[in-house]
From TrEMBL:
Single annotated GO MF: aldehyde dehydrogenase (NAD+) activity
Subunit field text: Homotetramer.
Family: Belongs to the aldehyde dehydrogenase family.
This protein's name: aldehyde dehydrogenase (NAD(+))
Enzyme Commission code(s) on record: 1.2.1.3
SUPFAM superfamilies attached to this UniProt entry: ALDH-like
Chain ranges of the Aldehyde dehydrogenase domain: 25-482
Organism whose genome encodes this protein: Kytococcus schroeteri
Keyword annotations from UniProtKB, A to Z: NAD, Oxidoreductase
Superkingdom as given in the UniProt entry: Bacteria
Length: 502
């Protein structure tokens, strides 16, 4: 009997106006059952070249379009995303395995970033500076780059694309997008809604292109000099390949890579609040968020009590088919993720760890080709190699500490630097954690978990996380180039620094 998700996917694609290129090069698959949903034709090299050429050509028109007019396109896109929020959420659930509330939350991020970008379209401002020369004025102006290449990952199949695209479009750029091979249908539906917005507001066609293919397609984008900025989301390994290749051609890269995120639970913490914050951050999206909490650093005075409470909370988690809306934890994306989780648990045991709960596969009889697992909690004697390595699965390693400086040092002593948190009611501890001597991550929270960032703040991390920033604050500057202008409105030509010539 065919799972109901197949029909829901068909209806959602139709509602969004998506056209699926028929073929057998690629397979859209659902981790809910492990079954294929439909075959798709991959983008050819010729089609890729045409897409980039078209985007580069249309850019010359789009950059001259007033920014508030560009904002009108993004506003209309946001309206269509709102209208089709449920349809897109169905596709995100089907392809990424997210529970309905998380899938809907991801689409809401798209809507929110459109709202932010519309306001931004009237605020792409530079600075004015005093000149040392009389009758002169200095200022900086910001200009669009050209074609922005977006390479996105399966775990946030549409939100991260929208973060990049909404901002890139109001800044005056055009976009080519290679989504993950695991989430092709979500991408086609998202692209179809943007195409409808383009038509509705009379924007030039060819502003945006979606490209379907494997990493070979992404590599060609990375190496193409017509794409001045490549924004890539994925593993640290992927970023280590993308960054140098883009830099070798003097392009720019915006990298959002791995996270090995930790939370410190201080002795003064509100443990009820901390329990909720830790549980969601550790098991949301089945541990497959870049901001998933993977390390828990608990003060010795509360470690036993808090860990026991957390193990009991894990025992109440319902695991199952996310499309029904009845469960809290959905599947891992594929067998490779399951195998990586089992290997990490094996390594943790070998390095002195004790698995307190979870780790096993469930629902294998009902869904033999899908990989549902029990989220695991592992008590570790120290921050060993396996703890310092990101495993994209629901494993939470528990460590203890005595002094706050020791906890902060543990938090920082990993290659990744994306998200971090501390649970404390001591204002001094909270302030120290977000100070220069505190967390070295791009995100440092107090009394909330490591995941669930709002679009108003810049999102990204340091060290092996790549250093990129997307979404709010001044992240828009990554999609533009800066020029310093000096305007002489006098009838003299004095030189700077008192230089005399002729």
């Amino acid at each position: 009997m065919t799972h109901p998700i197949h029909e829901k996917v068909r209806q959602a694609l139709e509602a969004c106006g998506a056209t699926v290129p028929q073929g057998t090069d690629l397979q859209a698959r659902t981790p809910i059952t492990g079954e294929d949903l439909m075959g798709l034709a991959a983008t050819t090299e010729a089609e890729l070249d045409t897409a980039i050429s078209t985007a580069a050509e249309v850019f010359t028109t789009w950059r001259d379009t007033p920014a508030p007019v560009r904002g009108a396109l993004v506003k209309r896109w946001g309206e269509l995303l709102t209208e089709h929020k449920d349809d897109l959420a169905v596709l995100v659930t089907a392809e990424a395995g997210k529970i309905p509330s998380e899938a809907a939350g991801e689409v809401q991020e798209m809507i929110d970033i459109c709202d932010l970008a519309v306001g931004l379209s009237r605020q792409l401002f530079g600075r004015t500076m005093p000149s040392e020369r009389p009758g002169h004025r200095m200022m900086e102006t910001w200009h669009p780059l050209g074609v922005v290449g977006v390479i996105s990952a399966f775990n946030f199949p549409v939100a991260v694309y929208a973060w990049n695209t909404a901002i890139a479009l109001v800044c005056g750029n055009t976009v080519v997008w290679k989504p993950s091979e695991a989430t092709l249908l979500s991408a086609l539906a998202t692209d179809a809604l943007l195409a409808r917005a383009v038509k509705d507001v009379g924007a030039p066609e060819g502003l945006h292109h979606v490209l379907l293919g494997d990493r070979t397609l992404g590599e060609k984008m990375v190496d193409d000099t017509r794409i001045p900025l490549v924004s890539a989301t994925g593993s640290t390994r992927m970023g280590a390949e993308v960054g140098p290749r883009v830099a070798a051609r003097f392009g720019r890269s915006l990298l959002e890579l791995g996270g090995n995120n930790a939370a410190i639970v201080a002795p003064s913490a509100d443990l009820d609040l901390a329990l909720r914050g830790v549980a969601f951050a550790a098991v949301g999206t089945a541990g497959q968020r870049c901001t998933t909490m993977r390390r828990l650093i608990v003060h010795e005075d509360v470690a036993a009590d808090f860990t026991d409470r957390l193990v009991k909370a894990y025992g109440t988690l319902t695991i199952g088919d996310p499309s029904t809306g009845k469960d809290l934890v959905g599947p891992l994306v594929n067998k490779a993720s399951y195998d990586a989780m089992q290997k990490a648990l094996e390594d943790a045991r070998a390095q002195g760890g004790e698995v307190l709960c979870g780790g096993g596969r469930v629902l294998a009889d009902e869904f033999p080709d899908a990989y549902y697992v029990e989220p695991a909690i592992v008590r570790m004697p120290a921050q060993t190699e396996v703890v310092r390595t990101e495993t994209f699965a629901p494993i939470l390693y528990v460590l203890t500490y005595r002094e706050l400086d020791e906890a902060i040092a543990l938090q920082n002593d990993v290659p990744q630097g994306l998200s971090s948190a501390i649970f404390t009611t001591d204002v001094r501890e909270g302030e120290r954690f977000v100070s220069d001597a505190g967390s070295d991550c791009g995100i440092a929270n107090v009394n909330i978990g490591t995941s669930g960032a709002e679009i108003g703040g810049a999102f990204g991390g340091e060290k092996h996380t790549g250093g990129g920033r997307e979404s709010g604050s001044d992240a828009w500057r990554a999609y533009m180039r800066r020029a310093t202008n000096t305007v002489n409105y006098s009838d003299e030509l004095p030189l700077a620094q008192g230089v005399e010539f002729l």
